[in-house]
Amino acid sequence: MAEIAFEKAGIIKPNTPVIIGERQPETDPVFIKKAKEQKAPLVFAEDLLQTSNIIKKSNFLQVDIYQQKETLLKNLKLDLSGSYQLKNIITVLETVESLRKNGYHIPEDAIYQALKNVKKLTGLQGRWQTLAKAPLIICDTGHNKAGINEVLHNIEQTKYQTLHMVIGMVKDKDINGVLQLLPKNAHYYFCTPQLERALPSKELAEQAALYHLKGSAYATVAAALNAAKEKAKKEDLIFVGGSTFVVAEII
Fold first, then answer.
1. I need a labelling partner for 107 at 20 to 30 A (CA). Which of 42, 114, 196, 245 fits?
2. Whether residue 210 is found in the same domain as residue 113
């Protein structure tokens, strides 16, 4: 994790404000050291802003933002509904505050409108995105342990009868680290995304079996998803993910 932080810290420029979202013991020293070298003012957003009164729906999140018990923004709606957006939003808002301090005029109404229309304004897709209902089909591009943990948190908050997991991965990721997190009570449909770095679905299924994850291997993402659709009932949940490339093939 520290190595990844070191690479990301390369974007820090001299005398330029730096906003980091979460504090983490492994990465904080990396960012602090680099910012000090560049004489770049550094803040951790989670030290300054907090969320409360969270309402989660299938297509949006509603949240209040406060600072030291003082409400800054009330009933802020986000069209990105994954629970991890609660972490992202404080980083975004602290960045807005930094821009304001540096002379940019960003009215409060613009914040409300922009965050309610992120998908439309940016074209962003694949972040806890609902693709269909009855059965409910949701995809997410989370592909590492942190991302999968957030996915599982969202799944826990979703109502369904049986869980179906369409999963594909690439060779250079922490495959075992992800597999050991996945729920054992789901039906698995292992697939191979169409790129050279893709881990063949049969190999993925073999590794998954070591963690008592049971399912079948399919040559393509489409074939795996179709199989899941055929088996799933209207009350079930089909999740598609494991790799950004898997999600890219279905949206």
1. 42
2. no
Rg of the chain in Å (alpha carbons) = 20
Residue 240 has pLDDT above 90, yes or no: yes
Measured distance CA(197)–CA(126) in Å, rounded:
20
Domain boundary among 58, 88, 122: 122
Q: What is the pLDDT of residue 4?
A: 79
Question: Position 204: which residue type?
Answer: L
CATH code for the domain of 190: 3.90.190.20
Report d(CA 215, CA 152) in Å as an integer. 18
Residue 179 and residue 228 in one domain = yes
Look up the domain containing 189 and give its range: 129-248
| 5 pLDDT above the threshold of 80 | no
List strand residue ranges (DSSP E) for the chain, in order.
18-20, 42-44, 50-56, 61-67, 70-78, 129-132, 136-139, 163-167, 187-190, 215-217, 237-241
151 CB-near residues (< 8 Å, 6+ apart): 128, 140, 142, 239, 241
Question: Does residue 79 contact residue 104 with C-beta atoms inside 8 Å?
Answer: no
Are residue 133 and residue 32 in the same domain, yes or no? Answer: no
Residue 6: predicted pLDDT: 82
Q: What is the mean pLDDT of residues 164-188?
A: 96
Residues 54 and 15 in one domain: no
pLDDT band, residue 136 (cuts 50/70/90): very high
